[in-house]
Amino acid sequence: MRKEKNFGGETSREKTIVRTSMLGIAGNALLALFKAAVGLLSNSIAITLDAVNNLSDAFSSVITIVGTKLAAKPADKKHPFGYGRLEYLSAMVISVIILYAGVTSLVESAKKILVPETPEYSTQSLIILGAAVIVKVVMGLYVRAVGERVNSDSLVASGKDALMDSVISVTTIAAALVYIFTGLRLEAYLGVLISAMIIKAGFETMRDTISEILGERAAEGLARNIKHTIAQVDGVRGVYDLVLNNYGPDNFVASVHIEVEDDTTAVQIDKLQRQITDRVQKEQGVLLTAIGVYPANTGNTAAGGVKRRILEVLSQYPEVLQLHGLYVDEAEHSIRMDIIIDFDTKDRLQRFEKIRTEIAALFPDYKTTVHLDLDVTSL
């Protein structure tokens, strides 16, 4: 499995996430306490809701710790690829908590609009809120940076949420100043705005988590590095069809196709596959569970002409991203190949059938087989 290079392995990554989350719990709990006191004393719904938001952030950090601990469980017979995806489920729970906090805040703010109360601000309360803004900015930048370093979606989301909270607090202070100098009451309306921002953050976290669970396209840098590593192995003429399955942050299981000369023996292919598997595991921290093989024509002089004619046809279709696995088998009088068509192509399957028919018409004396491959990683 892929290792966390900056932190010496999965155990160190886990400790980093837990330590950072503990700091988040302590910081948010203190901020919630101070803001709740200020909100109650000043009779400000906006400040009180801001305190509730900090409290939900602290609870989210608890969920992050629990999810990280469970995700770090070693692989077993029932789950041979480990429990890493539990981190995504913990992020889903956090998104539900955020949504609940946002909806609850929205209801309370609406009540205050219908039945307004007169706020009472003091210099001390505004100073406390100002200090809270500074704390939240520092906390947000730190947590987000750590999350990006250890590839933790939960920490990154917490960091972004903390920075958003600082904006909310600044807005709350501005509403207080408006009331002090003009007598205009904006707290309840600001509470609605804060609630909307909290709900939006909850939906975004849920959307991103669902996308992770469904399976996203592999990061371009990782896919490119794996292909480069494989291409450096002697005997490999091409690298195609890299599929990366994510079993948690930085935990990938992969399969790939390589192209080798058609006179390569089974013993040589076995040796080649073992070299590739070991090198990718060592250099990229990714486990290759399957390596397919495409043969490349070496003794067939007509193969080059066949490829040129096929490329002329494909040049008319810019949506065709790649041709690979092309092999001309004179013994069986057959031609086989794979093509990749951009996912954004309208009527993609119909376009593939049109291309397949055109290629087959070029070689009426051959049995032509064209497969449609998926565009799953950068080419």
Give a description of the structure.
- The protein is an alpha/beta fold and 379 residues long.
- It contains ten helices and six strands; from the N terminus they run αααααααββαβαββαβ.
Give the termini distance in whole angstroms.
23 Å
Mean pLDDT: 84
Strand order of the largest sheet: 1-2-3
Number of strands: 6
Radius of gyration: 29 Å
SS-derived structural category: alpha/beta
What percent of the residues sit in helical stretches (DSSP H or I)?
Answer: 55-70%
Portion in beta strands: 5-15%
**SSE string, helix = H, strand = E?**
HHHHHHHEEHEHEEHE
Tally the helices.
10
Note the main sheet. 3 strands, mixed
Which outline best applies? elongated
Stretches where pLDDT is under 50 for at least 5 consecutive residues are 1-10
Topology at a glance:
Layout: H1 10-42, H2 45-71, H3 86-114, H4 123-150, H5 153-182, H6 187-214, H7 220-231, E1 238-246, E2 252-261, H8 266-284, E3 287-296, H9 303-314, E4 320-329, E5 334-341, H10 348-362, E6 367-373
Parallel strand pairs: 2-3, 5-6
Antiparallel strand pairs: 1-2, 4-5
Helix pairs in contact: 1-2, 1-4, 2-3, 2-5, 2-6, 3-6, 4-5, 5-6, 7-8, 9-10
What does this entry show, briefly?
This protein has helices at residues 10-42, 45-71, 86-114, 123-150, 153-182, 187-214, 220-231, 266-284, 303-314, 348-362; strands spanning 238-246, 252-261, 287-296, 320-329, 334-341, 367-373. The chain has 379 residues and is an alpha/beta fold.
Feature tags:
379 residues; alpha/beta; three-stranded mixed sheet; 10 helices; 14% strand; disordered N terminus
